[in-house]
Amino acid sequence: MKKVCVITGGGSGMGLATAKCMPKDKVIVVTGRTLSKLENAVKELNELGYEAYAKTCDTSNREQVRELAEYAASLGEITNVINSAGLSPAMAEPEKLIRVNALGTVYVNQEFAKLMKAGSAIVDISSNSAYILPGFLANEKTFALAETDEEKFVKKILSLPNKLKGYKASGLAYGLSKKFVIWYAAKSAYALGEKGIRVCSLSPGLISTDMGALEAEEGGSLIETTAEKRMGKAEELGFAIASVADERNGYLAGVDVLVDGGSVIGKKFVKKN
Ligand SMILES: NC(=O)c1ccc[n+]([C@@H]2O[C@H](COP(=O)([O-])OP(=O)(O)OC[C@H]3O[C@@H](n4cnc5c(N)ncnc54)[C@H](OP(=O)(O)O)[C@@H]3O)[C@@H](O)[C@H]2O)c1
Q1: pTM of the model
Q2: What would the pLDDT profile of 148-194 be if each residue is shown by its tens digit?
């Protein structure tokens, strides 16, 4: 049976870069909302020798995620899910950020887990913004509502961002959505560990992708505190994400892997001196 790797947000940026780091014996399914982008990604992957397929899916829609998971399972055994789909503060209003980044992660983890077997792995992409967010703003009681009462979850998590305006509101909603991703990936790791499904999250710093270019102005201070004073490259993150997803990393579970060039640690270090 063929092994299948599904990459949400695989039409561009870190998702596509991850596809290019996957072993060539895996069938790659790239997914996102824009078919033309996915078709271009498939063309690139085919040229590199991959068997790859495009399937549109909005991860903030549970039914579409379920259909995506069923489609992937029809191609073979789903061994890897990379959930790289996401929107940044410059791209969307607070509510959309929560529905795509946070609830999208719930739908992906839940719907794929129903069809995945022992030895498989899910990697949810968060952000180093989650580390910068003051801890007291992340309320785990609110986070838990995402599995029991979605609309209450959305209302509660937006209560602070809705007191702000413009980029500040979206920036806070983004940070909260990504803090949620880390929390939910860890929770999923314990819920799915008994089935042998490994779950981790990975938090990139400021990375040179379409999204990174949009955030470079607001997020510029994140570059100053990196060890090398630069943005990350999509291909560097692709390699890191593919490594976390690799079966040989079988003991890596329930943790967040921070791949931000030292930006968060650098902030503390700079403050100390
Ligand atoms: N670049 C950075 O500096 C940075 C830093 C920290 C974290 N991240 C995170 O890393 C991940 C990848 O971002 P990237 O930098 O590679 O940006 P990107 O190139 O913009 O990739 C994001 C992808 O997600 C897809 N997407 C957006 N909303 C979606 C939805 N509702 N359903 C399905 N797909 C959707 C987009 O395609 P469509 O628009 O066609 O759907 C796009 O291909 C994101 O989760 C982002 O939050 C990025």
Answers
A1: 0.98
A2: 999 999 999 999 999 999 999 999 999 999 999 999 999 999 999 99
| C-alpha 151 – ligand 1 centre gap (Å) | 23
Residue 106, token pair as written in the block: 């719930």
> Which residue, judged by its Cα, is nearest atom 1 of ligand 1?
212
56 phi/psi in degrees, rounded to 5: -75, 145
Task: Assess contact for 244 and 21: CB atoms under 8 A.
Answer: no
Nearest alpha carbon, ligand 1 atom 31: 58
Q: Separation of 211 CA from ligand 1 center, angstroms?
A: 7
Total number of domains in the chain: 1
Q: Give the number of other Cβ atoms within 10 Å of residue 120's Cβ.
A: 25
> Does the beta carbon of 260 lie inside 6 Å of ligand 1?
no
Residue 91 burial (CB count, 10 A): 16
State the CATH number of the domain containing residue 227: 3.40.50.720
